[in-house]
Design brief:
Elements (H helix, E strand, L loop, with lengths): L7 H14 L7 H33 L10 E2 L2 E2 L3 H16 L4 H8 L8 H15 L7 E3 L5 E9 L17 E8 L2 E10 H4 L3 H30 L3 E5 L6 H8 L8 E4 L1 H13 L13 E3 L6 E4 L4 E4 L7 E5 L8 E14 L5 E5 L2
Parallel strand pairs: 3-11, 7-14, 8-9
Antiparallel strand pairs: 1-2, 4-5, 6-13, 8-10, 10-14, 11-13, 12-13
Helix pairs in contact: 1-2, 3-4, 3-7, 5-7
Length: about 350
């Protein structure tokens, strides 16, 4: 399949496959580099196209234009407001468990002139990913099932060799692996019959706003917990003061090219306060690095988040289970939202956790 014809999941699967090919002895690095550039360009194009479609659909929906608009982007037709609303209605009723056969058919028929349901759902999810300063920086893959990522634990480096001198010692290479075993991130809420009576986009807006933020937050917390617990993270004992950032930077590898700081607001406040009360003038205790806040952080983390990978075997869409019976006497409906995923640091010395003794 040509790259220009791939969808987002196929792009991510191929990127993951290339990562496993790079270390092969016969790897064509130049060709793989060119392919990765093309895949990244395709991924960005898909996301941009989906955002543009959503904006155009909103514009059409808010206008007085009634006929089907034959607006094209290449060969892609944009559906009119009526068809778009029908798809929203069908998706909402499917989540409630009340979709008619016609509505179910609308969600499964790949008819020309429609926007795929996966794109509609994806836009809700992308919004929450993009809002998170942590999740927006990590790498995401979509590989079905469990899998392993290999990394170079240690290796002897290259040496200068004079002609005629004794041959240098053979390289000593030690490899390690990170195991990805996906589990469900879940949240459930109780909603009233009035909420269940909402139609179409109004119901989806309520549901995804409620679940999207909370599930994204749960995954963000999992990223922080993984970094702090990972054996690939350097554990640094240092006072949480103006020297903490320097200690963290010194501990990470050269491959951590774009480090940021992750910490909680209490630690951030204490370090900032020390800057104003210390006898010596401290220009910037965070050394110019961007500070990202997460309340679950137990110290000051210096990390390049490109070294963190999240795998979503079923994609980034949420699955919903609706239970109308267990709380029926209270006129409430239980809705469970979940997403299958796992997250790991895959770069040795890609992060440093700085904590006081």
């Amino acid at each position: 399949m040509e790259i220009k014809e791939m969808n987002s999941e196929q792009v991510e699967a191929r990127l993951a496959e290339i990562r496993s090919l790079i270390d092969a002895e016969d790897a064509d690095i130049e060709a793989l580099t060119s392919e990765v550039d093309a895949l990244i360009e395709r991924r960005d194009s898909i996301k941009k196209s989906a955002a543009e479609k959503r904006a155009l659909l909103d514009k059409v929906a808010n206008s007085d234009i009634k006929p089907i608009a034959e607006i094209k982007e290449g060969e892609t037709k944009i559906m009119n407001a009526e068809l778009r609303n029908n798809i929203y209605d069908a998706l909402a009723e499917t989540i409630k468990g009340k979709a008619t056969p016609e509505q179910r058919a609308l969600l499964t028929t790949d008819a020309e002139g429609t926007v795929a349901v996966s794109e509609i759902v994806g836009e809700y999810v992308w919004t929450d990913w993009d809002k998170s300063s942590i999740l927006s920086r990590i790498r995401k893959v979509y590989i079905p099932g469990d899998y392993k990522v290999a990394y170079e634990s240690s290796a002897t480096g290259a040496v200068k060799h004079a002609e005629g001198a004794e041959a240098p010692a053979e390289e000593t290479l030690v490899l390690g692996t990170v195991d990805f075993a996906a589990q469900y991130f879940k949240k459930w809420i109780k909603v009233s019959d009035r909420v269940m009576a909402l139609k179409g986009q109004a119901f989806l807006d309520y549901l995804y706003d409620e679940f999207g933020h909370q599930l994204a937050k749960a995954i963000e917390d999992a990223v922080v917990a993984e970094i702090e617990a990972s054996t690939l993270t350097v554990k640094v004992t240092n006072p949480l003061d103006s020297t903490a950032t320097i200690a963290g930077i010194a501990a990470v590898s050269d491959e951590a090219a774009n480090p940021v700081i992750i910490t909680n607001k209490t630690i951030w406040k204490n370090i900032k306060n020390e800057r104003t009360t210390a006898g010596a003038k401290i220009e910037d205790p965070f050394e110019g690095l961007e500070v990202l806040f997460n309340r679950t952080a137990t110290g000051l983390i210096v990390v390049d988040l490109d070294g963190v990978v999240a795998n979503f075997p079923e994609g980034e869409s949420f699955k919903f289970i609706t239970d109308e019976t267990s709380l029926a006497e209270q006129d409430l409906v239980k809705i469970v939202g979940k997403i299958l995923g796992d997250v790991h640091l895959v770069r040795p010395h890609g992060a440093a956790l700085v904590k006081a003794a």
